[in-house]
TrEMBL record:
Coiled coil: none annotated. The keyword Iron does not apply. This is BED-type domain-containing protein. One of its GO terms (molecular function) is DNA binding. It comes from Poecilia mexicana.
Amino acid sequence: MDVEQRDVCGETKSAINTWRYRHHFTYKADQGKNIIVQCNLCLPRVNLLSTSKTSTSNLKKHLDRTHLGCEARPDAKRGRKKEEYNGEESRHCQLKKLKAEIISKCLTQSKIDDLIFSFIVEDCQSFYVLEQPGFQRLITGLTEGLKVMDRVTLFTKVDQGLTRMREELLVKLSSIQYVCTTADIWTANDRSFFGITCHWIDPESLERKSAALGFPRLQDTISYDSIAGRIHDTHVAYNIENKVQTTVTDNASPFASVFREFVSDSQERDDDFGFFENVRTILEGEREQDMLLFLPPVQRCASHALEQIITEDFWQAISEGPMCQLHYSSMTKVFSIWNKCHHVQVGMEVAEEIRKMALVVPAVIRWNVEYCAVQKIISLSERELTELCARLEVTRLQPEEMAFLKEYVTVFHPLAFALELFQAEQKCYLGLVIPTILSLKNKLNEQKDAASYFGDVINSIAVAIDVRFQEFFSNNEAKIATATTPQFRLWWMAASEREEMCSLLATEASQMEPRDVPEANTSRNLSTIKSEDDFFSYGSAKTSAQNQQRGVTEEIRKYVEGTGKSLECLQDFPRVKQLFLKYNTTLPSSAPVQRLFSQKGNLMTSQRNFLTDDYFERIQLLRYNSSVCPLLTE
């Protein structure tokens, strides 16, 4: 007897009698304040349920948990309004069931493996994280029973990913005519790693592209011949030894020795940089007498040169002047604030106050980071700074020290801005260096008269800038790179020098190989013989060459007279565009290879020591190149 029939007989009265899902249950017996019913949906299995006479919540939970999406038969006595309500409840159950089905279809074991692989690579996690019980429970709980792949599977995926990445990168580089590489050595935790990255400009979109080529550990003594062998070996492995315009390094002595020894004379060499016949002997330290190795020209890092101006020339100037003691006391107090915030355990109340102030604490002391931190401190009000020093129990800054720091931030803001420009990657070209240095000197000179503390220091820095960047202003390649950048053109040059620069651009453009100029512009030079008059022609070759030279000169003139600053305008000047690609492929800074070492600030930590050197390199290459060669294939 179902519940509805039992109600008609008058043998029981309970909340289930008016419930819209009562047709799913059969009354069995009374049990004090409860009744016992049989679930009809569980048949043929007998499933007796107990529920209160005044509530149906237990039965509703049973339907939701065991019979998700079940159809409820509307009670005819409840009317149209309740029928609509029942329909909404039914649709809600259907949506929940559909969502569960979608999740079960999307989260396959293969998909989970790919996501875990991305997590390991992008965050450079130890492979042992796969064996951590907490991580395994997390994945199992989120995926409703799917498992974490083992380390053998992860090793296989890393190997396959690296092979696919190298193949894709070789294909991309095969169609590129000009590339630039950056190289550096990083030592941490008693390990030394050699990093080398590659950069080029897409000839169609004119966007900067970057990729990491190698990140091996240096096991033996670091010497100029072993570094040279690493650089050349990497260039050969990716078939770019004849495409590299320059290799950008910092100004440290190992790289200076490398390129003094192996770089060929630019006046004597062709586009072929030369080949080294037995790279392995260099790597093993067994040099042959007749063995020659020519590397591409070296480009010193412009951002490193700016940092040297601060870390060496500025400190020398300030130490010899009357402001030495004031500078020392001011920076000592500033560093004490940073140390208390970063290294000492502070109370929750103080930590919350520091968070609200958005105080910058430099974890890695580099000058641009230090400058931003000082800038943030002087932006605090006098009350905020006094309260902060009191809470941290450090000596507060005196008014004269605050005035000194404020002028320090104001005077060196142009230098910090220039350093940020040089350390950029996507929109940074060799042609940016000369205009940046000229603007930097102008900005510093403008502040010299108003400076109370740094007047003499500005003069010393201006002299240091001239000395350290002299080679850029005497280098024709840097000048051509600047002139072919639409943002600058020839506006940075004196009027008396512009005509000579136009002639240099025209000469360079006319010497471009035929394959360097688009086919549409060279098709008119192809020989077409259609009649005897075409065959018996004299002096046409000379006339054609003269016409071509006039065309080159006219294109240079139109470009120089233009006003557009976007790179898109180079599409109207094919020869200038080729010059731009050739000379602006070079980066002015080695910052990209430094990001290979220290991106996210935690690459060289103890947890990385659980990775072998080989797989540590593979993880770094996959992570760095994920923008040009995606980790996962669709």
